[in-house]
Amino acid sequence: MMPDRPLDILLLRDASNCHRALATGLRALGHEVTVASEGSGWMDTERDIDLSRRLPGKLGGLWLWTRLQTGLKRRLTGHDIVSVAGQGFLDLRPHRIRAIFDYLLPRNRGVFLTALETDPNYVGECLDPDTELQYNEFRIFGKPSPYALERPEILAAWQGPELTDYSRHFYSHIDGAVPVLWEYDVALRRTLPPDRIAYGGIPIETSAITPVHLPDRIGKVRLFLGRHRGRLTEKGTDILEAAARAVTERHPDKAELVIVENRPYREYLEILRSAHVVLDQLYSYTPATNALLAMAMGLNTVSGGDERYYRFIGEESMRPVIHVEPDYESVFGQLEKTVLDPASIRPRGLEGREFVVKHNDCVTVARRFLSFWQRRLAEKESAS
């Protein structure tokens, strides 16, 4: 049911421009939206209220906390909807975030989660031997992943009491959660009842993206890898890069590899447009933001495109993602197959654009969020 009046919506924190793109869709539908975020870190995405830590170390945390206590947190109240991007929606210690979370609950009509990143509940799902997510950043078919072996302290922190206690408190008090990936939907169902979960998807501003015109026959396939420094093993970027280098070394006249690292969002998008095939991430079942942006440009993407994901969103015919299993051989094989069949790139790119417009346009995604928020508010207020 659509609201009789515009909703006042606060989107708190951002990641990979998700909330900013969602705001565009919500505003197109006539709602009042404020994005309060740190700008997705180095991506420096647009926001209406800046929540970044402007000083290094503990001084940065003290500066942000002081800003919140001296008036900023009042700007986070009085909204119909507050949706936080992850449990760690402020760059502060968990007990500080919990204090702000508890402040928000009685001062807004509804507080929701946009589920778009790792938290203790998701880690628990990844480590569960019976999970559908048989490969993920922490476990691969029952064995520790390269990331888990490289950074055991990260896994220990996710399972420690500081984060798990806050996570239990968080999930017991939110009004609902909107996952943007199939993986997060799976994880949420271990802790929330089905009526408090509704899939949203990742919003993409498709009308603002002009598709790249790929030729019918590409002479030299340009492979593109955007590296996130510090997350190479977490996203499987190390394996993607190794396989891509091997393919270009075997077929130097047919392929080349372009690598960029930690670029601002607008600059990154411009570089991305020069690619033919974009290497996204390895341990996924669902194409995420980077893959969807490339597809919206009409480019090919190597990422997660599992059949369970397509069934989940109700897509019966289009299969635009170059799906890879979580190992070097799968990536090498799919990349070599693509490089040796350049005539397949343009048709796949056209299908990818059609797919994103159908399933991930920011207005389409905004309607899903709104429908769920409205239902949950009505249920909450009728029960009170």
C-alpha-based Rg, rounded:
21 Å
- Overall pLDDT metric: 94
- Helix tally? 15
Spell out the helices and strands N to C: EHEEHEHEHEEHHHEHEHEHEHEHEHHH
Strand content: 5-15%
Strand order of the largest sheet: 3-2-1-4-5-8
Distance between the termini: 20 Å
How would you classify the helix and strand content by structural class? alpha/beta
**Helicity range:** 40-55%
Describe what you observe in this structure:
The chain has 384 residues and is of the alpha/beta class. It is 42% helix and 14% strand. The chain contains 15 helices and 13 strands. The chain has helices at 18-28, 57-69, 94-104, 120-127, 146-150, 152-159, 161-173, 182-188, 237-250, 265-272, 289-296, 307-313, 328-339, 345-360, 362-383, and strands spanning 8-12, 32-37, 49-50, 81-85, 110-115, 139-140, 143-144, 177-179, 221-227, 255-261, 277-279, 300-303, 322-323. Strands 3-2-1-4-5-8 form a six-stranded parallel sheet. Helix 11 (289-296) links the parallel strand 11 and strand 12. 45% of the residues are buried.
Write the layout of secondary structure elements.
Elements lengths: L7 E5 L5 H11 L3 E6 L11 E2 L6 H13 L11 E5 L8 H11 L5 E6 L4 H8 L11 E2 L2 E2 L1 H5 L1 H8 L1 H13 L3 E3 L2 H7 L32 E7 L9 H14 L4 E7 L3 H8 L4 E3 L9 H8 L3 E4 L3 H7 L8 E2 L4 H12 L5 H16 L1 H22 L1
Parallel strand pairs: 1-2, 1-4, 2-3, 4-5, 5-8, 9-10, 9-11, 11-12, 12-13
Antiparallel strand pairs: 6-7
Helix pairs in contact: 1-15, 3-7, 4-8, 9-13, 11-14
